[in-house]
Amino acid sequence: MTRLNLVKGLGPVLQIAQGYTVDLPEQVHDTLDQRTDPTWPSTWFAPVLTGTGAFTSVYEVMNQWGANHGSISYGHIGADLITLASMLRIPVNMHNVPGTEIFRPRAWGLFGTSEPESADYRACSVLGPLYR
Question: If both were cysteines, with which of 54, 63, 102, 119 could 111 make a disulfide (CB 3.0 to 4.6 Å apart)?
Answer without folding.
Answer: 119
